[in-house]
Amino acid sequence: MVGSEVILLDFWPSMFxxxxxIALAEKGIEYDYKEQDLPDKSTLLLEMNPVHxxxxxxxxxxxxxxxxxxxxxxxxxxxxxxxxxxxxxPYTRAQARFWADYVDKKVYxxxxxxxxxKGEQQEKAKxxxxxxxxxxxxxxxxxxxFMGESFGYADIALVTFYCWFYTxxxxxxxxxxxxxPKLIAWAKRCMQRESVSKTLPDSKKIYEFxxxxxxxxxxxxxxxxxxxxxxxxxxxxxxxxxxxxxxx
Length: 248
Known about the structure:
This protein is of the alpha+beta class. It is built from 11 helices and 7 strands. A 4-stranded mixed beta sheet has the order 2-1-3-4, covered by helices on one side. Strand 6 and strand 7 (242-245) form a beta hairpin. It is globular, with a radius of gyration of 18 Å. It catalyses: RX + glutathione = an S-substituted glutathione + a halide anion + H(+). One of its GO terms (molecular function) is glutathione transferase activity. One of its GO terms (biological process) is glutathione metabolic process. It is an enzyme of class 2 (transferase).
């Protein structure tokens, strides 16, 4: 595989981009990595994702594929000769998609609220987030991985949030491992895979990044203009009544 045939537009702390990097590593695919300056989006990013204008974007032979879980499925279907990520059984495959969709719809927003809200709202958010994680923990059960004996699509969908847990645990003053020990054991098992351990940044590096970003934004004086997410490729806020773009 020639690296220039596969290009990834990404941003290093993005848990969504990490999904794609893990999938490419599992398949042994060489690629060109192009780090994106999200507040000043590149012409290439805008051309390759004109609808959402966000990362990650996989470009294969000049054609863009957007949305992280869709990209992971594309990678699995395109490079079938090594490390299948989706189960072969149609029902189990449907279940893997269900759980990845559950992660997409539930985990990110709940994690963010658990560390950024205050007072009673934060306590409620932490409880709701732990309840979501317990549902996921129940699905894993005593199995090594989400769908059984093999690491795959559903594991990739969730494990990239693991390096962000420390940040929001610290901000929210709670312990995910205390509440969901089997889930954390699963995450540590995933981290034993080279594809995961070499992709996920150190948790304290993520924390330092987040705190620097929050300091620049002026956390106590910001109104949300859109769902700010350095992980999805957005970075516009209203601060003291003025539109602000933040550089990371």
